[in-house]
Amino acid sequence: MQDRAWWLAAALSGALMVMAGAFGAHALEGSLAPRLVAAVETGVRYQAWHTLAMLGVLAWRSACPHPGQHLVLGLWAVGMLLFSGSLYALALSGLGRLGLVTPLGGVLLIGGWLALASCVLRAPRFDSGER
């Protein structure tokens, strides 16, 4: 299977996302300040969208491999780890801000989307009628 490690990473991200969402909704609700519960919800939301986006890129890659797709996947994976992970750590530790970790994760997520745009523009064009 091509890109087995990326498929595994997306699957594990999806599982972690569901666990973090359930933990935030059931275990943390009422025991944390509302802003910390909101931080977990934000982390889960961003992780969910980017995990789904990774699956889309992997599906595209299986049909039409392009070298730039790995950059997209890597930026999103590290971005989710830093962005969502720092929000989860913030809620669990209550330490307040984690410096530039969360914004850096956000920049990497944005970079992944820009890399995707570049990848799409550089990918070979094809018409469904020409296949």
TrEMBL record:
Keyword Cytoplasm set for record: no
Intracellular or extracellular location(s): Membrane
A GO-annotated cellular component: plasma membrane
Pfam families: DUF423
Alphabetic keyword roster: Membrane, Transmembrane, Transmembrane helix
Keyword field contains Transmembrane helix: yes
Bilayer-crossing regions: 48-64, 71-92, 98-121
Chief localization: membrane
Bilayer topology: Multi-pass membrane protein
Protein family per UniProt: Belongs to the UPF0382 family.
Protein name (database record): DUF423 domain-containing protein
Organism taxonomic ancestry: Bacteria, Pseudomonadati, Pseudomonadota, Gammaproteobacteria, Oceanospirillales
